[in-house]
């Protein structure tokens, strides 16, 4: 009888466990890779594509609705797909590189992209980080899952009709070789705008079904060469035919180093995966484990979908650009000197976007990878002569600022010390004292005037005010790193320029303004006018880019009350646009208008930290209210899910950090400024095994205001927490309410870091 009771108890316990497990929803299923795909040249809801990939993988795969060379690979309103493409691009505005695609067909062979484009419906589409599936109107089903440097695809063809697969070599030099006995295609592609001469992406594709026929073709004129097994030329591709009704698996791997390394990678990542399900399970578990490390509880299903969709995008870029040799050691083909080196390299990132939140999020979730990234930054600088600022994968110098120093300093002050600080400072000193051969962020545009006058002049340099503000912040980061590591020369150099933001402030109008070479202000002045001295914005948005010295900015503006009034005005003034120097509406303007939050243009980076500045001026409750309002109004998990370009994880990382309850206003310090979390409970499991939990009692859409707080059981009034508070593990408990707590967090000691004291 006792034994029976034990068995019964065990059975009941097991049944309850199964019920609980059955009720637990996979976190990966919350993440939609269709978020932000309803975008075009004139209006961005993300400008992303439904990426199937692993975290920070060398590439992803996506359905392709756009033509070869179109930056918008996939647009949600499209009704046809013309291929399934290996993808790398982090921005539609610069296009992609190293691209090739596969397209399944039934019936008659059609090689040209317009002719082969096939109708589909979104109701027949599944899109999650680990798995993409679509069934065409012609009943062909395509499924995709990914490894770090490869992919596993499965094509299911309808019965009683020829089954073709077309490989498109895209729009530059490519080569293919068909191996009928091995059921294999190998080759290379070399397309892309910002790549070194002779750059190649070598690929190997192994199928699990025999070929009934095969040949090569070229996409310039559509010439098809039946039975040809090898070809090289512009836009060269291949095709193979399978038996009618075939279900075909394609396992694909790539290398930037050599054809031999592509085979090595294929064996490493796909050689043991005989079934599609094996590869998919690994991809699913990889994402699930990452998502479980940032586990949120409570909140609506919509909030969870938005959170995990954003967490997915926050963990895609930068792409790994290194590979593992036969011994498992990392090495890479350098896009900077076109040689092969040992170690780590990363690409596909624009630091002007991502220094703000995406890299600070990495310091929390991925400190080991962040350490490797810092090594890669210095390796790139050594191979190129300049720090990367925007890599695709070669350096373009896009946008403005010298934000590699922000990444390096932020890592150092947070205990990630995998690099030589003297080497970093010497490289930054060179960057800050010269102009490189590429875009505005390769060295410094206007660097002589910046040091001689204290500001970059207009019209000698368009975006001059923006440049001055961001140079001053970067110089602060150089100062911070030099001070922390005892390099007095560099400390003293940058100590003189990190306050240069002051030279852009006009006390008469109360705005940061463009200045001429003779010291006079640029006229006429309209704070609504975009461009000119401002990069992708106007005076309302660029007023706040003094990340390192908000208290100094407050003093410039006449004290806290005037500062608060100007912050308030950003939301209260009309959402009108003076197109100014742009001469026409650009998508960033339209996104600000559509957001209908005054001049608050969350769709672009310059203003994304602005809301948190209320914490520096004695009114943290306004930050709490506006942050929750932005997250609720401007983000969701649908194809309209972002209020502008997603930008390599920055837009998503802003949401992830803000939803957790804090944000990195000033990378290069060890502080995060507190906002208002979305969820009643969130737990971050760190690489070191510690857990940091944010508990928000009574949290709801109305209860957005912090009434009281404790950190590890002790009363906590600060509007910031330290990086160590998170990494050491612990619990931040917030009591939430529907009315501002106007006496909390207003003491000087409660305000976040500012250089001025």
Instruction: Please give the CATH architecture of the largest domain.
Output: 2-Layer Sandwich
CATH topology annotation of the largest domain: GH92 mannosidase fold
Q: How do the strands line up in the largest sheet?
A: 2-5-6-7-8-17-12-11-10-15
In whole angstroms, how far apart are the ends?
Answer: 76 Å
Describe this structure in words.
Monomer. This is Alpha-mannosidase. Keywords: Calcium, Signal. One of its GO terms (biological process) is glycoprotein catabolic process. Residues 1-22 form the signal peptide. With 757 residues, this protein is α+β, with helices and mostly antiparallel strands. It folds into two domains: 27-293, Distorted Sandwich (Beta-galactosidase, Chain A, domain 5); 311-750, GH92 mannosidase fold. It contains 20 helices and 35 strands. The strands form eight sheets. A ten-stranded antiparallel β-sheet has the order 2-5-6-7-8-17-12-11-10-15. A seven-stranded antiparallel β-sheet has the order 1-3-4-9-16-13-14, with no helix packed on it. Strand 30 and strand 31 (691-697) form a beta hairpin. Helix 5 packs across helix 19 and helix 8 runs antiparallel to helix 9. The longest helix has 22 residues, at 2-23. It is globular, with a radius of gyration of 27 Å. The termini are far apart. The model is unreliable at 1-22 (pLDDT under 50).
